[in-house]
Amino acid sequence: MKTRYAEDYKAGDVFELGTYELSQKEIIEFSQKYDPFPFHVDEQAAKNTVFNGIISSGWLTGLVWLRMMHDSFLCHETTLGSPGHEEMLWPKPVRPGDHLTGLLEIKESKVSVSKPDLGFVRYTSTLKNQNQEDVFITTSTMIVKPRPVKPQ
What would the pLDDT profile of 98-139 be if each residue is shown by its tens digit? Predict the structure, then answer.
């Protein structure tokens, strides 16, 4: 992956995050450990809910998105983490077998005036299912190293 510094991200830049298919086994195993609502872990019980079947935990969907970020977008040499998410939305449930496709759009990028060794890149990222429905949306900021200053 190409090394990218804070100055390399421009408002309007769009990055593809790839695709991921979420299995029922993954959904159930994750949810049994971390989010054991019946609509995440029990097929029969899930049929009697508003979801009419098993759905992914929103947290699992978010972690799938994060894995996609690591695999196709984040530069480990320059990315220093995140101060947090402004929003995290799950407009439609993710179901077993859904094929998720991720996109990320840069909103702004700036180097801190008070801490010139830190840059901040704000973005909105979306996962869509195979029907082009949004299933996950997040707006967040990542901390990124600025381009090193060459000694004069």
Answer: 999 999 999 999 999 999 999 999 999 999 999 999 999 999
Q: Which domains does the chain have, with CATH numbers?
A: 6-22+56-144 (3.10.129.10)
User: What CA–CA distances, in Å, run from 40 to 24, 33, 73, 79, 102?
Assistant: 9, 11, 29, 33, 22
The DSSP element (H or E) to which 14 belongs, if any, is strand 14-21
pLDDT digits (tens, 9 = 90+) for 18-66: 999 999 999 999 999 999 999 999 999 999 999 999 999 999 999 999 9
Query: How big is the CA angle at 125 (ends 54 and 26), to the nearest 5 degrees?
Result: 30
Helices (H), the chain: 24-34, 38-41, 43-47, 58-72
